[in-house]
Amino acid sequence: MVPAGLLERCSFPSAGTAITCAVSGGADSLALVVLAVEAGCVVTLVHVDHGLRDGSGAEADLVAAAAARFGAGFIARRVVVAPGPNLEARARAARYRVLPADVFTGHTADDQAETVLLNQVRGAGLRGLGGMRDGPGVRRPLLALRRAETQAVCDAYGLVALDDPMNADPRFTRVRIRHELLPMLDDIAVRDVVPVLARNAALAAEAVDALDAWADTIDATEVAALRDVPRPLARWALRRWLAESTAAEHPVDAASIERVLAVVDGTTRACEVVGGWRVARTQGRLRAEPPD
């Protein structure tokens, strides 16, 4: 039986809705399966093997067994991720390429806190402070739960979760945030800071939505329009435009935005921005030009 009160804090769709869950075999994703089934959803599990360690293909067997136990469908996918820098980010990108756009994941409040801190050390600004969202697109129905609670779900059902060695590898920034920075913040604050970070993320997300609605009223390619609004809003509109134009994986950096503002102000007629893209101005309008 699901521990009391957990399901009510999740955000699953109505009973009978067909959903796809990304399941690694870890405690969070196995708890996602249990809770989705208990919510009455028609569940299909997808396991993605990144081929990053010996025996990783066998992990799909555990996920397939969970699918059979809980009456869910099962799909196995395999992606190729070459060794090298930014391994975690490249593996994540490869994984999402083979998952449906509205896939359900097992991210928890602990993951949210780590994401907020990771975004901040990367300089991701207000949007980064908003952390992860539960849709549109990727669904994260467990964001109100703690990691200890997903483990409790697994314990209640006798599920033995996989322990990914990457989650203890200090080469990855997220791992150091989890095992070093968050415990240190707890100690300094003399409290559990995860709920604080998660609550701040929700407030920041509300502010982001308000700014997005305001920016929707501005043509970010029109120089005159950008000059007529407060500079912070011009920055916001430009950042959204550049992110959409360049399909940037991470938020557009502040230096790129300032260079584009110089083009808007007439200090220069063109500049380079994220990913080798170029922004130029012609007859009072901006255009984004891809790398050669």
From TrEMBL:
Catalytic activity, per the record?
Answer: cytidine(34) in tRNA(Ile2) + L-lysine + ATP = lysidine(34) in tRNA(Ile2) + AMP + diphosphate + H(+)
Keywords, A to Z, come to: ATP-binding, Cytoplasm, Ligase, Nucleotide-binding, tRNA processing
Q: Pfam families, from UniProt?
A: ATP_bind_3, TilS
State what protein this is by name: tRNA(Ile)-lysidine synthetase
Record GO terms (molecular function): ATP binding; tRNA(Ile)-lysidine synthase activity
The record ties this protein, via Gene3D superfamilies, to: HUPs
Q: What class of enzyme is it?
A: ligase
Per the UniProt record, which EC number(s) apply here?
6.3.4.19
A single BP term in Gene Ontology: tRNA processing
